[in-house]
Amino acid sequence: MFVPPQYTWMTNTISDLAAQGLPNRWMMQLGFVGFGALLTGALVHKFVQTKQVSVADILILLYGVCVLSSGFFSAKPFLEGVSYSAQEHQLHSLFAQAAGVLFSIAILARLISSRNAQERTFHALFLILIIGTSMLFGLAKGGDLGVGMGVIQRVLYALGFFWLLVSQSWSSEVSRTRKPA
Prior knowledge:
It is a single chain. The chain is 68% helix and 0% strand. By secondary structure, it is mostly helical. Helix 3 (86-112) packs antiparallel against helix 4 and helix 4 (117-141) packs antiparallel against helix 5.
């Protein structure tokens, strides 16, 4: 309804929904900006409420800022013959890649600061899943995999959202048990 008929969720990325030249790209851009702002705002609120800041939370906040920033710039069009700004595409890619790196390092930081074996196992598993899925995405991008980038990216996002929810829940639980200084 809002995407060109050439868009296929299995092969096209989520950024392709906000590609330059698409008439409804603003919807997906708003999604990037909204998610980034919501995540960033939630972490700032957490910092103010708990008066505690962890390295992982700072990395997640920076991840949110990068997702938000990626929404201000669109990827190059996936449709042939549409003119576009290479600089805008590069900025979108820069922020998207930085978001991925920051997210992975945040998981590593949570792994290192885990309080028990259950948390360490959870974070180690998700670090492996996130890095492994990211590698699959790279293989799909290069055409070396029989699965489309769209499918792999959606799996990557689902894993990331799940990790964020569980990780922040545990983090909030720890914050409630400690009294601010």
